[in-house]
């Protein structure tokens, strides 16, 4: 995953964030691509509230449905 600089974060559209009202600040969880989406899931699992966890999962799985399918495959094994 390429690390986003502050300038790159500021250039992202608000729709690239889980919480656009916080963008581009801390806790906004940018998900412009699948690697950042995976990272957002990991970070919110570590540090997020129950509300943030739910919202991040909803946003990530809506934008990248293949991640939800991968999660279901791992659970079945």
Outline the fold blueprint.
Elements: H1 6-11, H2 34-47, H3 50-63, H4 65-76
Please give a structural write-up:
With about 80 residues, the protein is an all-alpha fold. The protein has helices spanning about 5-10, 35-45, 50-65, 65-75. It has a domain at about 30-75. The relative contact order is 0.13.
**Helix content class:** 55-70%
Low-confidence stretches: none
DSSP summary, beta strand count: 0
Overall geometric form: globular
What order do the helices and strands follow? HHHH
Query: Rg to the nearest angstrom?
Result: 13 Å
Class based on secondary structure composition and strand pairing: mainly alpha
Total helices: the number is 4
- Major β-sheet, in short? none
Work out the oligomeric state of the chains in this entry. Answer: single chain
Distance between the termini: 27 Å
Q: Strand content of the residues, in percent?
A: under 5%
- Overall mean confidence score, pLDDT: 89
Descriptors:
60% helix
In short:
The chain has 77 residues and is mainly α.
């Amino acid at each position: 995953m390429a690390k986003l600089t502050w300038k790159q974060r500021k250039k992202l559209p608000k729709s690239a964030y889980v919480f656009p009202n916080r963008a581009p600040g801390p806790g906004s969880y940018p998900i412009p691509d699948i690697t950042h989406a995976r990272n957002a899931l990991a970070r919110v699992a570590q540090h997020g509230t129950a509300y943030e966890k739910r919202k991040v999962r909803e946003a990530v799985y809506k934008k990248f449905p293949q991640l939800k399918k991968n999660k279901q495959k791992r659970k079945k094994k």
